[in-house]
Each structure stands twice: as C-alpha cells, then as structure tokens.
Design goal:
CATH architecture of the largest domain: 3-Layer(bba) Sandwich
Structural class: alpha/beta
Bound molecules: flavin-adenine dinucleotide
Distance between the termini: 62 Å
Number of helices: 15
Helix content: 25-40%
Number of strands: 19
Length: 418
C-alpha cells in the first residue's frame, strides 16, 4: 500500500512504524510542516500500561523510549504554605522532542520516508495519489475541517486558560500541583520532571483571572515574567521558558475538547488529536494517539478491506476515547470549579484533587498509599469529633450531627433500595 501520514507527531510516526512492522512492503511518507527538531511543548506523561502496549507492538522503540523516561511515584500539593505528598501513583515522563526524535530514528531505520518542512495543503490532493491518507495533523487538523460534513467535529473550548512552559527548576521527586492566590484570583501550576534538568510547568487559571492580569494582550515574555513572580517561591530562582516562539502574541489557550461523529472519509482516516483530544490534566493525549495508531494498523491488516478496517477501528477505539474523555472531563471540570474547593483544609482539598477524575476511589487510594489515606481518615474523624484513641475508620462510618440529632454514621438507605 502507498500511505501518506499528514503530520509527523506521535500519531503519524507511530502509525507509520506500526504499519511497516506488519508489512515492510508498504511505501509510507510522513509529511511534516516543521523541521525534524522543531516542537511545541515540553514533556508528556505516559503510564506503565502504555509502555507495555508499545513494547508488545515494537520492542525496539519501546526500549529506546523506556531508557529515556523519568519515573516518579509521588504527587505533591502546595497550598497556603503547606506541602502534602502522597505516593504510589506511578507515572513516567519523557520530553516531547526526545519522543519524536526516537520515533523518527525508528521510522528511518524501517525505511519510512520522512518529509520535513512540507506543508500538506489539502488531503484531497493526496487522496488520489495514495491508497491511504492518515490525517495525523493534530488538534487544529485541516483535514478534519476539509471533510467536516462527514466527520462532523464537535469542538468545545473549555473554560480555563493555560500556557505550556518549561523550567530547569527540579520537580524530580513528585508530580507537583501548586496553587497560588493572587490579587486577581487563583493561579495554579502542574509541574513534572521529564529529563535530568528540565520540567514541564503548565500554568492555568480561570478566564476572569486571565482577563484581570491582561495575559491576552501581553507578549509571551511579559506573561512569563508575571508567572515567574506568581510562582517565585517554587522556582528557586530558575526562569520559566517558552518554546512556542513561532506563535505570535500570547501562547495561552483554552483547551479544545475534540470529538468527531465519524473518523473516516473514503480512503482518509483521522488519528490522534485530529480525531479526539483528552485534557492534559489526566495526561492521556499521547497515550490515545499511539494506542489508536496500533489499533488502526491492526485493523488494516486483519480486516478484509479498508472500509471494514475503518469501521472496526472506530468501533474499537471510540469506547476507549469516550472513557478517557469522560475521566478528563471530570478532571478539567474540577479545575474549572476549583474555587469551590479552595476554602477546604489542605488535607481535604488534596483528597478532592486526587479523586477528581473519579478513576481513583477511596479504596484505590488505600492501595496506592495506605499511610497517607489513614492520615486523611484520621483527620476526617477529628473534624467529626471522634476521640483520637478510636480506631481509624472510613469517613462513611464517622458520626454525623444534624442539629440536635447525632447519627452514628453517614449511611442513608432510600426507601426504594429497602
Ligand atoms: C499543555 C499540554 C500538555 C500536554 N501534556 C500531555 C501529557 O502529559 N501526556 C500526554 O500524553 N499528552 C499530553 N498532551 C497532548 C499531546 O501533546 C497530544 O495529545 C499528542 O501530541 C497528540 O499527537 P498527534 O500526533 O495526534 O498530534 P501532534 O502531536 O499535535 O502532531 C501533529 C503534527 O502534525 C503537524 N501538522 C499539522 N498540520 C500540518 C500540515 N498541514 N502539514 C504538515 N504537517 C502538519 C504538526 O506540525 C505536528 O507535528 C498535552 C497537550 C497540551 C496542549
């Protein structure tokens, strides 16, 4: 098959690799508008589970990626001068640029043709000269817009504003969330190490706060200076850095949640962020992109023709995408409404933050960090006036006072359930 991948991000490169591994006779061109070592953003997070999926698909690139991972187990919260740490969360991070360079090397080794500094104008031009066109052209996919009558994209810009920065300050021991109160409202950062001396530092705030600071009218350097001032107690004198210099004006954006009704049109198929996005606060965009690339390559090799392969790919992956998007929505909505929780004690705030996507339950927290959970349960019991000598129990079994009535626990059974 002659295949064109429009866009050489993780989705396009990993799909090309996966196809070539299944059949070396495929002729594959990856068309990328940027230079090989141009990239936006800093590090990305992947899970151990994703790395296992990559290893099953291509042990060679998985090994190279694994060797360049920064691992961490803890999540730290900084709030009102306190630092709370829980463990057992198991993440790994890699520089986006490093990931792309490793995938490019692997693609070259397999005989894939990488064409950099080439703008793919219209998928319609490629559609006639290639058997298969993969629209891996990212969040603002032109191909998705070109065939929007078929794909019917549903794009929802979320409420918060954020900017993706980097720093040489070390956050090596934990995935770190920092909440700072400013004269214009709360501003927070999601920070994680992705190589020996660089960390991702995403700054986020509500639209009102963004407007009051005037971030939208500032140059990138001016907005960086304001962020450095806000987070100065956490940066150890290190500057914040941008690598979005190609973007004119402010590099802040509101996260667009992308969902499409259909993922294929004739011999064109959507992959990665072009098809669906997952909010960065659950760190699953790259996971979706590479796992969908594997699924698409499998379907194209296992199904009898392209139409059935596309149907199968969409059927198999849509459920996973919706599952992740649902967790991502819970998580991003928690940040959008974070001011509702910021008056809470840091212990309770931390509990709320850790369980925000609803993928991590109370008992799952016990598996991750029994000590930390027990300390949170003890805190809850203290608030409910239980004696410090009483054995620790889950919040459900702590007493509850309603005016003069003292209930032994917090369990309510509805008449229907009886
Ligand atoms: C702030 C932020 C933090 C993130 N953090 C994480 C994280 O921690 N973990 C995670 O897994 N994901 C994260 N992501 C998401 C992740 O970056 C994307 O989900 C992932 O890169 C999707 O891969 P992709 O190949 O589909 O798209 P992209 O990586 O966007 O690649 C698309 C490529 O297509 C090229 N292109 C576009 N149009 C054309 C054209 N017309 N011609 C030629 N080339 C073109 C672009 O230059 C680009 O290289 C984050 C995203 C953001 C915004």
């Amino acid at each position: 098959m002659r295949i064109a991948c429009l866009g050489g991000g993780p989705a396009g490169l990993y799909f090309a690799i996966s196809m070539k591994l299944r059949d070396p006779s495929h002729e594959i061109d990856v068309i990328e508008r940027n230079r090989a070592d141009d990239t936006f953003g800093w590090g990305v997070v992947l899970s151990d589970e994703t790395l296992q999926n990559l290893a099953a698909n291509d042990p060679v690139s998985a090994k190279a990626i694994g060797e360049n991972f920064a691992y961490w187990d803890d999540i730290a919260l900084h709030l009102r001068g306190e630092r709370l740490v829980s463990t057992g969360h198991g993440f790994c991070g890699i520089g986006r640029m490093k990931l792309l360079l490793l995938l490019q090397d692997r693609a070259r080794e397999l005989g894939i043709n990488l064409k950099f500094e080439t703008n793919a104008d219209s998928a319609e031009d490629y559609r006639h000269s290639y058997d298969l066109v993969v629209a891996s052209d990212g969040l603002n996919s032109r191909t998705r817009t070109l065939y929007q009558d078929t794909f019917k994209p549903d794009i929802e810009e979320r409420l918060c504003q954020f900017v993706w920065l980097g720093t040489h300050q070390k956050f090596a021991d934990a995935f770190t969330f920092i909440f700072e109160e400013t004269e214009h409202g709360w501003v927070w950062a999601h920070a994680y190490q992705f190589d020996d001396d660089t960390a991702t530092f995403i700054v986020e705030c509500a639209q009102d706060t963004y407007d009051a600071f005037g971030f939208g009218e500032m140059s990138q350097q001016d907005s960086i200076r304001v962020c450095e001032e806000i987070f100065k107690d956490h940066l150890g004198g290190h500057p914040l850095m941008t690598n979005a210099n190609h973007i004119r004006g402010s590099a802040w954006i509101r996260f667009p949640r992308v969902l499409c009704d259909k993922w294929s049109h004739e011999n064109v198929v959507l992959l990665g962020d072009a098809a669906a996005t997952a909010h960065f606060s659950i760190g699953s965009g790259t996971k979706l992109a590479v796992e969908s690339a594997i699924a698409l390559a499998d379907c194209l090799h296992n199904e009898r023709d392209m139409a059935s392969a596309f149907a199968r790919y969409e059927q198999d992956r849509r459920l996973e995408v919706l599952r992740l998007q649902s967790a991502a929505r819970n998580s991003l909505e928690w940040f959008e409404h974070v001011e509702r929780y910021l008056h809470l004690d840091p212990v309770q705030f931390n509990y709320s933050m850790l369980t925000r996507s609803q993928r991590i339950s109370h008992e799952n927290l016990r598996l991750r960090d029994p000590q930390w959970l027990q300390s949170a349960e003890r805190w809850f019991m203290n608030q409910a006036g239980v004696s410090p000598e009483a054995p620790v129990r889950t919040p459900m079994f702590t007493p509850f006072s309603l005016r003069a009535m003292e209930l032994k626990n917090r369990i309510v059974v509805s008449p229907m359930a009886q």
